[in-house]
Amino acid sequence: MSGAEEEGWDEGAPERLYVVTGGRSRAGTESVRLDLVTLIVSRDVPQPGMPPEQTALLRMCHYPLSVAEISAYLVLPVSTVAVLLTDLLADGRMEARAPIPAAALPDAELLKAVMHGLQNL
Prior knowledge:
The protein is mainly alpha-helical. The chain has a 3-stranded antiparallel β-sheet with strand order 2-1-3.
């Protein structure tokens, strides 16, 4: 049993989430809107004295990860991850990239025609 469990400290407990976010329940309104599929990439390395959750975010996002993936890896609610991410985005330590819109993907009928043509070669 870990020290946290012995003390009755559950990682998903509301008290822990309150401490992790500094008491905030929502991301700042001036920040970029984060969806579950928004891609996040680190632009900096962790600095000494940073909270462990922010350090983990900076380390894990060397390649693009969605907000939903980050939430799953950290075992934290999406709302908590969004608050942490907006802090790092505001500091310029991370970058948010919009996912590829569906309109930018090729037409399914065009892909079928190309595959049919390749099969006939």
